[in-house]
Specification:
Elements (H helix, E strand, L loop, with lengths): L5 H4 L20 E3 L3 E7 L5 E6 L5 E5 L5 E7 L4 E9 L3 E17 L1 H4 L7 H6 L5 E9 L13 E6 L9 H14 L3 E7 L18 H8 L13 H7 L9 E5 L11 H16 L5 E4 L11 H11 L6 E4 L17 H15 L11 E8 L2 E7 L5 E3 L7 E4 L5 E3 L1 E5 L2 E5 L8 E4 L9 E3 L8 E2 L17
Parallel strand pairs: 1-7, 7-10, 7-11, 8-10, 11-12, 12-13
Antiparallel strand pairs: 2-5, 3-4, 3-6, 6-7, 8-9, 14-15, 15-20, 16-22, 17-18, 17-21, 19-20, 21-23
Helix pairs in contact: 4-9
InterPro entries: SASA (IPR005181), SGNH_hydro_sf (IPR036514), SIAE (IPR039329)
Protein name: Sialate O-acetylesterase
Organism: Larkinella bovis
Length: 471
C-alpha cells in the first residue's frame, strides 16, 4: 500500500491562494489520543506553513508541495481538552474546542444509517436528554465518485437533541457506552448509505481479484437509491478521510449483497484488509450479522450470514448476532438499535480496550458427534452452558443421507446440545436458524444468542460459483 495520503496526492492539483483544510479538520473535532495524527490541506507550492497545537506548543513547519498539498504529523497526548490548533501560511486558521479521545467510523447501509428521524425508536427516546459534551458527531454527506476524492462534505457537532436526530442510532449507542465506560471524549464519523453494496465501499480494482467477487460486481442490479459501481463510495466517502487517525470501524451492511451471497466472505476480507492498508493501521473492525427478515428467498440470507460468520477469521474482528433483536420480521429495519450498539461496544471494550466485560461473544458451533439416532453439538463461547427462552428449543433441523431436512427436537445436556428427530434413525447433518427470518430461542447463560449455522456443506441450489468460496 502507498501512504495514507496517496489517494488524494495523486489527484489533479489547483494552486490555492490561501491555506485551506479538509472538512473533517475543523473546530469541535475529536482527535485520536496517543498517536501520530496527520494535519493536512492545500496551499500554494513552496508556501511556508507552520502548525502549533496547544497541548504541547511545539512548532511544526513544512512547505507546500508542487501539487499544492501539504501535511504535518503531530503526536497527540492522553485524552483531554479542549485544545486549539493554529495553522499559519499566507493566512492563519485557528481551530478551537478540540478534544482528544477515541474516534470510530460507523459505516454500512440502512441499518447503520437508521436514526431517530428515520424510525429508530430507542434513539428517539434519547432526544430529550441527549446532550453530552464528550460525544461529537461528524455526519458525512453522501457522495459517490468515479475516482478517489480529496474531501467530503460534513461538519462536527456536539451530541444533542438536534444532531442525534439524524445520526446513526447504532453509532450513537456504541459511542455512548464507550464514553460512559472509558470516560474519554468520543468522536463518531457516520459514513453510511442505505441500500449500498459492499462492492462499492472497496477500491474498484479489488472487486476483480476473485471469480466470485467479479461475479458479484457484474450482477449488481441498478437501483434508484444507491450507486452500484464498484469503488464509488470508497472514492467519495472513505478515501478522503483515510489520513484522519481513527481507533476502529463498526460496520452494519449485507442486505444488499444477497444478490450473490457466496462472495461476501471474500468481499469482507478485501474491505477490512484494504481499509487497514489505507489507514496504515491494523484497526479493529466489529460488525453486525444480518437480522431476520422475510425476504421470501431460499438460502441467500442464510448463506450470507454464514459468510459473515466465516469472516471472523480476520484478526481483530468480531460479529454481533441480532436474531433476538427484531421487533417485526416484515420490516428490514429493526426499530430498536440500543442493544446492537451496546453489543458492538462490548466487543470493542473487551478486545480493543481490555476492559472487563462479562460476555460479548455469541456461542459458535464447533463440532458434532453422532450418537446413534442423536447428534451431540459442542460450541465455543458458552462457558456456563445454555438456556432456552420458551417451552422448547426452536429452529433446529436434522437430515439423513437423503439430505432432506426435517424439524428436530433439542435439549441441553450440560455444555452441549443434543438434537434428534423421529424418522431420522441415522442423522448426518444439523442446521440451526438457517433461513431468512428465523426465531431461535437458544442462548448462552449470559444471554447472547447462538450464531446460526449448518454442519453440512451441501449445494444450496445457488449459482455454481458458490463453490468458489469453499476452502
Amino acid at each position: 500500500m502507498k501512504t495514507v495520503l496517496a489517494v488524494w496526492l495523486l489527484l489533479g492539483t489547483v494552486a490555492r491562494a490561501e491555506v485551506t483544510l479538509p472538512a473533517i479538520l475543523a473546530s469541535d473535532m475529536v482527535l485520536q489520543q496517543q498517536t501520530e495524527v496527520v494535519i493536512w490541506g492545500w496551499a500554494n507550492p513552496t508556501e511556508k506553513i507552520s502548525v502549533t497545537a496547544s497541548w504541547d506548543n511545539r512548532l511544526v513547519e513544512t512547505v507546500g508541495a508542487p501539487d499544492a498539498t501539504w501535511q504535518v504529523r503531530l503526536r497527540t497526548p492522553k485524552s483531554g481538552g479542549p485544545y486549539s490548533l493554529t495553522i499559519k501560511g499566507s493566512n492563519t486558521i485557528t481551530l478551537t474546542n478540540l478534544l482528544i479521545g477515541e474516534v470510530w467510523v460507523c459505516a454500512g447501509q440502512s441499518n447503520m444509517e437508521l436514526n431517530a428521524a428515520g424510525g429508530a425508536k430507542d434513539a428517539r427516546a434519547e432526544l430529550p436528554t441527549a446532550f453530552n459534551p464528550n460525544i461529537w458527531f461528524f455526519k458525512m454527506a453522501k457522495r459517490a465518485a468515479a475516482s478517489p476524492q480529496n474531501d467530503v462534505k460534513g461538519n462536527w457537532a456536539v451530541c444533542d437533541s438536534v444532531s442525534l436526530k439524524r445520526f446513526s442510532a447504532v453509532g450513537y449507542f456504541f459511542g455512548k457506552k464507550l464514553q460512559a465506560t472509558l470516560g474519554v471524549p468520543i468522536g463518531l464519523i457516520d459514513a453510511s448509505w442505505g441500500g449500498s453494496k459492499l462492492d462499492t465501499w472497496l477500491p474498484e480494482s479489488l472487486s476483480s481479484l476473485y471469480p466470485e467477487t467479479r461475479y458479484s460486481a457484474q450482477t449488481m442490479v441498478k437501483t434508484p437509491w444507491a450507486p452500484v459501481k464498484p469503488g464509488a463510495l470508497f472514492n467519495g466517502m472513505v478515501a478522503p478521510i483515510t489520513p484522519f487517525a481513527i481507533a476502529g470501524v463498526i460496520w452494519y451492511q449485507g442486505e444488499s449483497n444477497r444478490h450473490y451471497a457466496p462472495a461476501y466472505y471474500r468481499l469482507m476480507h478485501l474491505l477490512v484488509d484494504s481499509w487497514r492498508g489505507f489507514w496504515q493501521h491494523d484497526i479493529p473492525f466489529y460488525y453486525v450479522q444480518l437480522a431476520p427478515y422475510r425476504y421470501g428467498g431460499t438460502y441467500e440470507t442464510a448463506l450470507l450470514r454464514e459468510n459473515q460468520t466465516r469472516a471472523m477469521d480476520l484478526t481483530k474482528t468480531g460479529m454481533v448476532v441480532t436474531t433476538d433483536l427484531v421487533d417485526n420480521r416484515d420490516d428490514i429495519h429493526p426499530a430498536y438499535k440500543k442493544e446492537v450498539g451496546n453489543r458492538l461496544a462490548n466487543w470493542a471494550l473487551a478486545d480493543t480496550y481490555r476492559q472487563p466485560v462479562n460476555a460479548y461473544k455469541s456461542p459458535q458451533y464447533r463440532s458434532m458427534k453422532i450418537l446413534g439416532s442423536r447428534v451431540q453439538l459442542t460450541f465455543d463461547h458458552a462457558p456456563d452452558g445454555f438456556m432456552v427462552k420458551g417451552p422448547e428449543i426452536t429452529e433446529f433441523e436434522i437430515a439423513g443421507a437423503d439430505r432432506i431436512f426435517t424439524k428436530a427436537q433439542a435439549r441441553i445436556i450440560g455444555k452441549t446440545v443434543e438434537v434428534w428427530a423421529e424418522g431420522i434413525p441415522r442423522p448426518v447433518a444439523v442446521r440451526f436458524a438457517f433461513r431468512d427470518a428465523p426465531e431461535p430461542n437458544l442462548f448462552s447463560r449470559e444471554g447472547l444468542p447462538v450464531i446460526p449455522f449448518r454442519t453440512d456443506q451441501w449445494d444450496l441450489g445457488l449459482p455454481v460459483l458458490g463453490e468458489l468460496t469453499r476452502e
